[in-house]
Amino acid sequence: MNLIERFKKIGLFLILFIIFLFSDLIYLIPFKYLNIDYYALSYNQQTLCSIFASSILILILVFIYRKYLKEKWLDFKSNFNKYFDFGIKLWFLGLIGMAATNLLIALFSPVQEANNEVLVQEMLNLAPILSFISASILAPFIEEMLFRKSLGDIFKNKKIMVIMSGLIFGLLHVIFSIQTPWDLLYTIPYGLLGASFAFMLYKEDNIFIPITFHMLHNGILTLISIIFIGI
Question: Which of 14, 200, 13, 51 is nearest to 137 (CA)?
């Protein structure tokens, strides 16, 4: 990869990352001009707005990477059994690492649970179905395309890509809900899971492997949470 090509890939990632960070503006700006008070909407309506913004970002990602996605989807379908067997092993490793570090943090720090998890539980309690769609379908696709594919394209050394992808993924799951410096410790468990997803892409060069297991991971956890909320 020459220098110009690398700068293009860095620029593309930064543009997509900025859109990801400020995706709420997709509906907040029109609401302002239409004199609609976003905070007066019901939680279900607010979640629908978020789903709309996520859908716009997905359309952008699909358009940019349409040839890549088509090629990798055909490959994924043709080699599904092989990729599933490979992916589930790495997913379990990520789960073990995540569970172990969560336990250590809870035992040896004053923070017993990641604030991000608390916020997710509140979302599921207020809008379970819409939150499930957002967390289990839309978010995994966006995060894998952004933090595995787009970010991964920048790095020539794929081992560094795995580390950086996991680190940034972990930070983004704690940075916006941080209340004390101790909360930063939860970057580790999230980062280990993110690194396992990144390693799937690194080894098999097919983005649909981490997308599948990210969706599976979020889907199972949100379903369990919804069931316990119902009980």
Answer: 51
Specify whether the CB–CB gap between 196 and 64 falls below 8 A: no
Does residue 150 sit within a domain? yes
User: Up-side HSE of residue 189: CA atoms within 13 Å toward CB?
Assistant: 19
**CB 111 within 8 Å of CB 183:** yes
The pLDDT score that the predictor gives to residue 175 is: 87
Task: Please tell me whether the overall predicted TM-score, pTM, comes out greater than 0.85 for this model.
Answer: yes
For residue 158, tell me if it sits in a domain.
yes
Q: Please, what sign has the CA dihedral across residues 204, 205, 209, 210?
A: positive
How many structural domains comprise the chain? 1
pLDDT along the chain (231 residues), means of 10: 84 95 93 92 93 96 97 97 97 95 90 74 85 94 96 89 93 85 91 96 96 96 81 51
> Which of 219, 174, 166, 167 is CA-nearest to residue 194?
166
Q: Can you tell me the distance from the alpha carbon of 227 to that of 217, in angstroms, rounded to the nearest whole number?
A: 16
Residue 40 in domain: no
Domain encompassing residue 205: 65-230
The first and second tokens of residue 168, run together, are 């940034």
* Count of beta carbons in the 10 Å neighbourhood of residue 47: 19
Nearest-angstrom CA–CA distance, 7 and 18: 16
